[in-house]
Every structure is written in C-alpha cells, then in structure tokens.
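User: I'm curious whether this sequence folds into something compact or stays loose and floppy. Could you predict its structure so I can see for myself?
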Amino acid sequence: MLDQSTRMWHRILKDCNPKWEYLMVESYYGTGKRKAAVARTWLKLGQGIITINNRTIEDYFGRETAKMIVEQPFVLTDTYGSFDVKVNVAGGGISGQAAAIRHGIAKALLQFKPEFRQILKKAGLVRRDSRIKERKKYGQKGARARFQYSKR
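Assistant: Here's the prediction. I'll summarize afterward.
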C-alpha cells in the first residue's frame, strides 16, 4: 500500500505530465526487439485496450495478421482482454514492429506472472529473434546477389 507522501508525489507528477499515470498504478514493463524495431511496452490490469504510439491497434496496423501477432501472448496465456497495453514503438516496418510488440508483451507478462514462462518459451516468444538484414557487400549488387555476368 502506498503511504501518504508517495500518493502526494504521484498526484503532483500526474498533474505535471499525464504520461506518468501508467507508472502510478501497478504496471509491468517489457522491451521487445525484432529486426530494426524496438518496442517499449507497459501492461496494466484493465479492459484489453491496446494503444500503440497513442493510436488504437486498428488505426496503427491495417493488416489483420499484425494484430494477431500482437495478441498472441495473451491468447496463449488466457489473459486476452484483461490487460490494457500502452506501447511506444520505433524503427523497422509493420511486421518487425508487430513482432517487437509481441516480444515486449511476452516479457511484461513474465513480470506479471513468472509461471507463464514455460508456455511463452514453448511458443518461442521469450527469446529475441536475432535475424536481421544482411549487409550489402562491395563489388556486388546486394548481400548475396552478384552483378550480371557478361561473357563478352
């Protein structure tokens, strides 16, 4: 339980900056990464509202597959609709950002209940997917593609 002085500081911080509201109630944090995308994810008990960069999930992701990827940790742990999610995500494209958010949600769920580790690990959501774009090499068209060979 919070003491009176802590509550007073929480009130002051909330008045100064509404973003602090997520830190005042008990929230769970996880950082997710995939390709070039990084997602900072906060979970708190609620109605299941997912907010990504101050937009709803429907507004942010047009594709249904991206929404399914984001919601996957909740479906696996039977906690769908019981957490409000606030995400700040940057870098990468749509699929990379969706997978980064999924990774962040999985890590935050582990903070909430460590017993979920076995379920999430079996589905491969705990470990970061380290596959990234291979760099282009000099003297070549791309990472592995060569320029067209001309015999004459």
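Summary: The chain has a mean pLDDT of 88. The chain has six helices and five strands.
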